[in-house]
Amino acid sequence: MADETLKSEDIERVKHILIEWDNLVNPKAPLSERQLLAIDRIAEAVKQQPLPKELPEGDVINDLKNDTENEKIETVQQFLTSYSQVEDAILDEGKEIYLDYHRQLCSWRDETDEVLLAVEKSLEHLNVLLEQYNLVSNNTNSLHSACQQILLEQAKLCETSQDIKKRLEYFTCLDNLQQRLSNPTLSVTSDTFYNILDKLDACLEYINLNMKYKESPNYSVKFRYCLSKAVNMMKQYISRTLISAKNQVLPAVTSQQNEMDKTDGTNFALFYGRFQAYAFKIKKLIYNLEQRLDNSPEYSILLADCHEIYFTQRKELMSESVKNAIIELSTRHRGDHCTLVRSGCAFLVHICNDEHQMFYQFFNKPTPLLQAYLEGLCLNLYDILRPIVIHVNHLETLAELCSILRLEMLEEHVQNSPQPLEAFGKVVWQLMQDVQERLVFRAHLYLQSDILNYKPSPGDLAYPEKLEMMESIALSLQEQQATPIRRSESRSSLTSVTSVISQEVEKTSGAGDGGQFDQARSRIGSPADLHGMWYPPVRRTLVTLSRLYRCVERPIFQGLSQEALSMCIQSISLAANTISSQKTVLDGKLFEMKHLLILREQVAPFQVDFTVKEMSLDFTKVKSAAYSLLQKRNRLFSLGTNNALLEFLLEGTPTVKELTVDSRKEVDKQLKITCVSFIDHSSRLLASSLINFIEKTNVFLQMATEKTDGQPDPVLRNQPFASPEQIGAAVQDCQRQIKTKLSQLQRLMQLYLANRETELILYRPIKNNIISKFQTVQNLVMKNGYSDEDRIIMALPTHEQILVLLSTSSLMAQQPEVTSVKETPTTAEVTEPEMEGPSA
User: If pLDDT is split at 50, 70 and 90, which confidence band does 254 have?
Assistant: First the structure.
């Protein structure tokens, strides 16, 4: 009942909603104008729709009329019944289509129910099948998983089995390797043997990495034994091969040595050609051995043994032959040390190159034994040459030996082939050190005997006769030849003076215009410039330095050069003093000056510092401390800090001073002293009377200033040496000396120096000194009360007259200015500040 009430309420609510569906005021589903227009069009179309095809053709109402006409309606009840029938007929007529559709739906429902039943049965069967499928699938998956697990376990077991098998191979192969090594037909050069070595190396490496295994130590010992056996087989084979090579070569070499020269190339070809033929037998084996050095220490030991065997055989083959060859060379070149050293070194260079090449025919990796072996061969030359070198006395030979060893051997051969000639270079360097030591020792003796203690012959000190003779020869050649004068560079060193002079004179020719003597001298240069005309100690010093410069180390050369220049300066000074005593002081000074100029100019090209540091002890404090000790004798045994003896020990220690000695500066210093002395002596020679007067006057004036009180003032004019007549005589004597000796002085300067600029530099201070002396006399005369008559008697020249006198008397003013042609660097010039002498 309640359900019907709810249904009626729902129907009413639905009807109400349907009524309000298209209400004009508040519709439930409002439509737009376009939608309303579409509905109207659809309504119009529906009105004109024909009847359905299912309806029978004809007029239903007419049929109904026909049916009703047949029946007569007599009562109201009949009418209502008829009306009801008609109404029902009309209604049924309208429901027929729906009824048919209903019947069709019912049939479809029945069919659907049947299909549904069939589907339900099918689903039931499918569910059964699904359950069965799931069961089978689960069982299959379980089986598959079990199979997968079994396969994984199988693979793991196989892998474990393979791993175990692989690991066991390093142990199980021992018996096989022992059997193969014991095979008497096994050859160490075969691939089978190399495979055995590979297997042994792999097994030992694996066992060494896994010593934690129980049997690893035992198997390691067994494999080591197998490896030692294999290594011993290799060693025996290599040893037999090398010994066979030596035995094959040695008889042939012995027979050849009896028939030919020991250094013959054919003989020494046997040492390499036949021996090298055996290299192919062991080359591959040694190469394989060298590739395994990192695998096991046994291989390194074997390779070292192979090197030892190789060098032992080579020593037996080569040592005696090389020694005999060098002895034969020393016998052949007895007395010719340079040729002996050059040929011996060339022979060893050839040997070292061949031995180096031979070694790498057998081996591929270097070894220090090669250098030791080559050094042993080279020491044969050292042992023979060293006794010869230490008895060589000639500096030329020692210097030449140094040049051969340094330039030809070390700088040429060794630098071009450093590896093959490394051992040779060490031996040559050691030999060169011995030669240099001998050279330095002999140089010291040579400097002492032939330079410092040189005893000049009369011809060495025949100055200026030698220079005048050379000039006369040059002038005679100049008159005979018309070609331009040119002095060729001299290359002589320690040759005789006569031969050098003759060579230089023969190369000298005169000027074409037949001019004056001084022009020819100026172009030719001083005869002292010729190497043969140099003072022998100077020439020997320069030649010695030039040879030592290329042979010894720089520090050694610096010390020797300082000593040589110092001794040379002393020797020049001694010779100059001798010339001064035998001839004139001017000759001695010019001789010393010229050779100092030569010395300074010749040492300039040496690219080395001539400065040497010397240590000396300064005992100045010792003297002061000793004097203080004597003053404090009462405190000798004092126990305090003022003990006199303690102060003496502390304050009296001599100090060490470092002195720097520059040889070039010493030459310049001595040159300056010589030039100043020459200028002073030349000035005194030309103006000696004036200088004596000035000196006496200065002494007189000095004594006049020291007179006692009460004595009358002394007058210079009253002194005998200062009378107008004496002063006039002194002035005339000075003028006469200038006229007669100035040109001679300049002639000597030209003869020795042959450099116009140097001559002018020397002449300028001499000229200034003379002018200064005249000016000093003028000042003394004016200040000491001489009358005009006295001055007339004195006849003192004016400054202009002095200049005219010097100009007319000067040899330089009488000849045209000619530029000196300096054909050797010995015509050095001296700067003016060094040459200025003292002026009054």
Answer: low
Helix (H) or strand (E) holding 532: none
SS3 labels along 185-219: CCCCCCHHHHHHHHHHHHHHHHHHHCCCCCCHHHH
Name the residue with tokens 């589903």. 29
Distance of CA 600 to the CA centre of its chain: 36
Residue 824 has pLDDT above 60, yes or no: no
Distance in angstroms (rounded) separating the CA atoms of residues 754 and 530: 12
Tally Cβ neighbours within 10 Å of residue 221: 10
| Distance in angstroms (rounded) separating the CA atoms of residues 651 and 621 | 7
Map out the domains of the chain as residue ranges: 2-49, 334-453, 465-534+552-609, 617-663, 687-703+716-835
Q: Which helix (H) or strand (E) holds 561?
A: helix 554-582
Please give the structure tokens belonging to residue 208: 């060494």
Least confident of 46-50, 81-85, 538-542, 551-555: 46-50
Give me the helix-helix angle, 585-603 and 724-752, nearest 10°.
40
Q: How many CA atoms are closer than 13 Å to the CA of 682, on its beta-carbon side?
A: 34
Where do we find the tokens 């006399």? 777
Tell me the CB-side half-sphere exposure of residue 676, using CA atoms within 13 A.
11
Return the amino acid letter for 139. N
> Which positions ≥6 away from 240 have C-beta within 8 Å?
none
Contact 797, 731 (CB under 8 A): yes
pLDDT of residue 233: 92
Helix (H, G, I), strand (E, B) or coil at 737: helix
Work out the end-to-end distance of the chain between its first and last CA atoms, rounded to an integer number of angstroms: 173
Between CA 34 and CA 416 the distance in angstroms is 114
614 backbone dihedrals φ, ψ, rounded to 5°: -120, 145
How high is the pLDDT of residue 46? Answer: 63
Query: Phi, psi at residue 795, to the nearest 5°?
Result: 55, 50
Give tens-digit pLDDT for 628-665: 666 666 665 665 566 666 666 656 565 555 555 566 78
| pLDDT score at 484 | 47
Which 3-state string (H, E, C) describes 815-828?
A: CCCCCCCCCCCCCC
Sign, CA dihedral 134-135-136-142, equals: positive
**Whether this model's pTM surpasses 0.90:** no
> Measuring CA to CA, which residue among 511, 679, 662 is closest to residue 600?
662
694 — pLDDT class (breaks 50, 70, 90):
confident
For the record, the structure tokens of 738 come out as 């200038």
Interatomic CA distance for residues 734 and 711, integer angstroms: 35
pLDDT of 43? 73
At residue 477, φ and ψ (nearest 5 deg) are: -70, -35
How sure is the predictor about 492, in pLDDT bands with cuts at 50, 70 and 90?
Answer: very low
- Maximum distance among all Cα pairs of the chain, rounded to whole angstroms: 226
Please report, as a single letter, which amino acid is at residue 686.
L
Question: Taking Cα atoms as reference points, which of 730, 840, 737 lies closest to residue 794?
Answer: 730
d(CA 457, CA 278) in angstroms, rounded, equals 71
- Determine what percent of the chain is predicted with pLDDT higher than 90: 25
Confirm if 794 and 781 have CB atoms less than 8 A apart: yes
Which of 174, 219, 220, 222 lies closest to 196, judged by CA? 174
Query: Do 419 and 360 touch, CB atoms closer than 8 A?
Result: no
Report CA-CA distances (Å) from 3 to 6, 7, 10, 14, 17.
5, 6, 10, 16, 21
pLDDT digits 0-9 by tens, 498-529: 333 333 323 333 333 333 334 434 444 555 56
Question: Alpha-carbon distance 328 to 264, whole Å?
Answer: 11
pLDDT for 259: 42
Type of residue found at 778: Q
Tell me, what's the pLDDT at 39? 78
Q: What is the pLDDT of residue 627?
A: 62
